[in-house]
Design a protein that fits this description.
Low-confidence stretches: 1-36
Mean pLDDT: 78
Radius of gyration: 15 Å
Order of helices and strands: EEHHEEHEHEEH
Structural class: alpha+beta
Number of strands: 7
Number of helices: 5
């Protein structure tokens, strides 16, 4: 099972752990990283049960949306562990975070059909 390290300061990481980078997670998560860049992408997200937690974000590519999800998770880890210099997690922890969101979907523009194709949480984790 792959483990990743989230260093508190850039350039530091725990011994023996591969540092987490958006590209490493993109490769691990697969589908998003194999999609062509330059496809306008909209991420729809609801973080809690309250409808006021609904939001959307726009990106130039699915990879940028994936990177944003990873950064949101890392930010949440830092909020929950403010005094911890190094926070470690693996891909299953990231998947659990994605599953904990009330709703998450990605809309990717398809230039051939001139429409947005919807993709749910499970697709993001493939």
């Amino acid at each position: 099972r792959a483990r990743f390290s989230l260093p508190a300061k850039e350039g530091s990481c725990q011994r023996g752990l591969r540092p987490l980078t958006p590209s490493a997670c993109s490769q691990r998560l697969g589908t998003l990283s194999t999609m062509a860049s330059g496809k306008h992408t909209i991420m729809l997200m609801q973080t809690g049960t309250n409808n006021s937690s609904r939001t959307f974000r726009e990106y130039d590519s699915p990879n940028q949306a994936l990177t944003s999800i990873i950064k949101m998770y890392e930010g949440r880890l830092k909020e929950l562990n403010p005094g911890v210099p190094n926070i470690s997690y693996d891909i299953s922890d990231l998947f659990a975070y994605i599953d904990s969101l009330q709703d998450l979907a990605v809309l990717v523009f398809d230039a051939k059909s001139l429409k947005y194709d919807p993709f749910p949480k499970d697709w993001i984790k493939q």
